[in-house]
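Quick one, tokens below. Sequence please?
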């Protein structure tokens, strides 16, 4: 592996910042939208943006006659967009945006046992098992920490659990994506978001009705969510993977919860209990241990003479 270079370091920092800040944007958008409408709206905007990008690049959606591929696309759309977006939007009504971002740190921890059973050749070693144990303890502390300053009682516990469930959906979605037949990444992402739109928009309209005209700030937050964390971050992600490899891209797993905490603290004045930071340290330590071989290749890489 060659040195990824300063440009790619800047790119992954930017992607981490974008994805970490998305939780604050969700919190802002919830001032003008109900949760399902917010989820459906950001998916619709993101799908339109990616479809336009696909057409500009001369690409096409996967062939409709390939039913096996479209089954994967349906699963990816639901597990990686529709369901987690809806869960996070609902949960963030009752928990700080920083907490929701911290739960995303559990995503790689959930992937470990799932990959063991469903991805050939990706078995759980003793090191990965120990890493999973550390991360699982951190996740348990994350869910069990109350007093987040939003609401009290059962609804807070449910909201915290729902945010963790969203991270689990992302983990399952990543496994399904890895098992998906070979297909152009932009075409796959566009098709998955289009399927998510077809699923989520009718559900949002039936459950929450046609939304009234929202204030400018929540509307701007919704448009931002649809365009930047989806379309712009996708373009940057592809550029990083093509030039520095997918292993280097995994460094965003460490950044997203940190950026979400910083955004929540400085811009939303969210105060978090110390237990949450202990949970975050445990989870990130578990991720680092599970990806130790990858981290060594990245940070101790030797450039070609």
């Amino acid at each position: 592996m060659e040195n990824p270079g300063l440009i790619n370091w800047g790119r992954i920092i930017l992607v981490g910042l974008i994805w970490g800040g998305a939780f604050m944007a969700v919190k802002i958008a919830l001032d003008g939208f109900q949760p399902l409408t917010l989820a459906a709206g950001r998916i619709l905007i993101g799908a339109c943006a990616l479809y336009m990008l696909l057409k500009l690049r001369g690409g096409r959606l996967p062939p409709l006659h390939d039913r096996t591929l479209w089954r994967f696309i349906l699963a990816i759309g639901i597990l990686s967009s529709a369901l987690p977006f809806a869960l996070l939007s609902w949960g963030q009504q009752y928990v700080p945006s920083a907490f929701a971002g911290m739960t995303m740190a559990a995503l790689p921890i959930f992937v470990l046992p799932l990959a063991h059973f469903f991805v050939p050749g990706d078995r759980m070693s003793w090191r990965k098992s120990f890493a999973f144990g550390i991360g699982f303890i951190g996740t348990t502390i994350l869910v069990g920490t109350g007093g987040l300053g939003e609401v009290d009682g059962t609804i807070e516990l449910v909201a915290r659990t729902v945010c963790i469930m969203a991270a689990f959906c992302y983990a399952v979605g990543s496994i399904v994506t890895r098992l998906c037949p070979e297909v152009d990444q932009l075409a796959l992402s566009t098709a998955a978001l289009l399927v998510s739109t077809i699923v989520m928009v009718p559900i949002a309209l039936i459950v929450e009705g046609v939304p009234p005209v929202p204030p400018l700030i929540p509307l701007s937050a919704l448009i931002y969510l649809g365009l930047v964390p989806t379309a712009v971050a996708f373009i940057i992600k592809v550029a990083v993977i093509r030039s520095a490899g997918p292993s280097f891209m995994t460094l965003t797993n460490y950044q997203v919860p940190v950026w979400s905490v910083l955004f929540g603290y400085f811009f939303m004045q969210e105060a978090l209990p110390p237990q949450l930071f202990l949970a975050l340290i445990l989870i990130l330590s578990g991720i680092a241990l599970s990806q130790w071989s990858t981290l060594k290749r990245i940070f101790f890489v030797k450039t070609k003479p």
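Residues 5-299 form one domain. The chain has a mean pLDDT of 90.
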